[in-house]
Amino acid sequence: MEILCLGLNHHTAPVEVRERYAVSGTQQGTVSKEMTSIRGVNEVVVLSTCNRTEVYAVAEDLEQAAEELKSHLGGGKGVKKGDEEHFYLRYSRAAVEHLCRVVSGLDSMVLGETEIFGQVKQAYQQALSTAATGGILNPLFQKSFGIGKKVRTQTTIQVGQTSVGSVAVDLAEKIFGHLKSSKVMIIGAGEMSRVTALRLLERGAKSMFVTNRSYQRAQDLAKEMGGEAIRFDDWEKSLVEVDVVVSSTGAPKAVVHAEQIERVRRKRKYRPLFFIDIAVPRDVDPAVGEIEEVYLYDLDALQKLAEEGKHQRKKQVEVCQSIIETEVESLLERQRSKL
Amino acid sequence: MTAVSLLILASFFTGTAAVLGWKAVQSCEKYRWTWLWILCAFVCQSLVLGERGALRGQCPLGDYGEILVFLAWSLSIFYFVTGPAYRLSLLGLFSTPVVTGMQLVAILPGMMEVAPLKAESIDPWNETHAAMSVLSYGAFALASVAGVMFLVLNKKLKGQQSGLGQGLFGCLPPIRSLIDSVVRLTWIGLVLLSVGIYAGFRMGVEGSGTHLWIAIGVWLAYIALLGIWHVFGMTPRKMASFMVVLFVLSLLVFAQ
């Protein structure tokens, strides 16, 4: 009896291929159970997320089992012509190491992300509840969760943000702490503003003002965010109240100038003000950043920090890999001694 | 144990807290035991002050060595009072080198009188004045430490420097919390200093009273600083810088 991992992910397959073999989040257990009825396949865990569909199985004849499992994933008719090349297949130790890499976030699109840990756990729980797992996959998955935790606690794989939006929100928290008492203003109701605003809301920001040249669009975004729309001519007045300003208009020249901030500094009692300028061309005059209590980060500065975050995480991959190899070795050693 | 041995032991505790805390920060981990090391040092400081108090028969603030130990002792107290409350766990990391330095200077030859004269009588106002004033300096010292932490983080944020989420900077509290702590600790110090100065007047001014007038000057400076902060507002960087400078200048009180 050996372990195999059959799957396709964002590294090997484009989204239009991945979606053909995706399994609904609530069906992972049922499909796992169905797959255990394939001859020679004893245990199965199906993992399906937006970036991957993988089948972990215990089988007698690995190659034959892989073909049968692939066919099952393709709805019993086999895989579509041309999709074959997008699948990967790993056996034994390589399959175990792959699972540990997945759980640890080393195989994720955003290196070191933590969401995958919960997704694997959920997939395993579903398979367990349908009795699709047994004496080999149960200890393997339990061990992989332990390794995933170890990788996260003993390395800095999840330290530092890797996207512009997350970097901006982290900076806001470094300035203001928890954002629940922070007021946010969005200048320009474009998609970039929307995404950044959503991240701020996720982290607790409660009060939000939205302004845009088209008042209707400001109203629409404000409604979606549970905030308040302000006419474009009036945004300066609200500057007294806000702590974070996200600016992303399509204006050809700067829309926020140092004089505008100077006018409200005293009324604000010189409280810190954080500008996130994600527009190109820039919306905020660089002179604004020279004001003592103003923290100004434009797209380049945010991207630089995000790149550094990615670089830091990549540097940790070797350390993580070494932890995984050591742990997998000790797991296999224990299994061998039991036999 | 002698006062010197106890101070060496206290310096070992605070020094260890500083080194281990710093190492933990370097490797992006939170060090949880700073409070324990400071507690051990606090016990040693209390024993030294108790011993010196028994020798003098009054509050042990008769020489520079005792003043330094009293300051170190008050810094330790304020760490326990404010550290957990303001989530400033790193305050320990920043204050332990200061406390260690004070203790080590206190054991230098000549800093502590070997055989201090025992007071014939105790003036409660004198005792209150001395104790409250030095305690207030503990609060001002910690406010300055928080001010330095603010300035370090602020420079990093303004300069858009990398590494904000790592090591020391990853553990530093947000700048808004830091500046709030500076203000709160200054208020605590001001209230204690007010009591100290009031007690100073009640005990009667001796000689030219330069010491008391400098203390009043310090008191007025802190009132002015807090007044401007609350009434007119001030940039957090200026507030933190003034706090650090004012604390250093206010140490002149002890030169008199």
Summarize the structure.
With 339 residues, chain A is an alpha/beta fold. Chain A has helices at 15-18, 28-35, 62-73, 92-103, 115-129, 137-154, 164-176, 191-202, 215-225, 235-238, 258-265, 299-338, and strands at 2-9, 41-48, 52-59, 88-91, 183-187, 207-212, 228-231, 244-247, 273-277, 294-298. Chain A folds into two domains: 2-154, Glutamyl-tRNA reductase, N-terminal domain (Beta Polymerase, domain 2, 2-Layer Sandwich), CATH 3.30.460.30; 164-304, NAD(P)-binding Rossmann-like Domain (Rossmann fold, 3-Layer(aba) Sandwich), CATH 3.40.50.
Largest sheet, strands/sense/barrel of chain B: none
Oligomer: heterodimer
Which residues of chain B form runs of ≥5 with pLDDT under 50?
A: none
Instruction: Please give the most extensive interface between any two protein chains, plus how many residues each contributes.
Output: A-B, 28 and 23 residues
The overall pLDDT of chain A, averaged over residues, is 91
Structural class of chain B: mainly alpha
Can you tell me the CATH architecture of the largest domain in chain A?
2-Layer Sandwich
**Tally of individual helices of chain A:** 12
Tertiary shape of chain A = elongated
Based on CA atoms alone, the radius of gyration of chain B comes out at 19 Å
Spatial order of the strands in the main sheet of chain A?
7-6-5-8-9-10
Low-confidence stretches of chain A: none
